[in-house]
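User: structure tokens for this one?
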Amino acid sequence: MCESNKEKRGVVCFTFDDFHGESWLKADSLFRKYGAHVTFFIMGDISPEKAGVMKKLKASGHTIGLHSVHHGNAVKLIQENGAEKYLEEEIKPQLDACRENGLEIHSFSYPCNYRNEESDRLLFRYFDYLRTGRGLDNVPTPYYPLKGLPEKCCFTGIGVGTFYGTELSVLKKEMIHAAETGSILVLYAHDIGPLGEIAKNDMPVEWLEELLSFAKESGIRIAGFDELKMLKS
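Assistant:
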């Protein structure tokens, strides 16, 4: 992690969905600048080219998770087609491809945040950590105590991007709260790029650097999901 005069407190987990290999790799220099590790959730078939990007990100210390083959609604697909068909079409092909490429996978993010207890039980057979997302309603910000974090956990993330009405000042307050309470705060976005050149649900690189810089100055750890078990001990 970055050198800091302050004790590292709490954890903020930045997560990114779908697959934006070129821009994610480009952003890696920014993550290295601040000693930050994040989590990338991969959608679609795992081609050799895609696996190569995943290996590079993994080698930089980031966590690689999965996001299903077809980006379908997990709740609807399980209800309509059954659990085993969902696993065979959406989950196992990705897991098998990752295994063939020497990539260990422990995390999954729900496409479009659709989940329920049934889907959690099913996917906890294959993953330790799941991630969904908070909608645009004003529900309380979810925090997860780092100490005593269960072996299996479904995190609710906060969307970052103009689509989500993001206010950096609010995010910074939430990061400080996570630090002061020894908690985990999860954020999610998709692509990373310059403000004005990306979609509304993507992470402006300008915002990303501001948040990473703030975390470093405040002594807040930025870690990937694979690091949580080590940090909680």
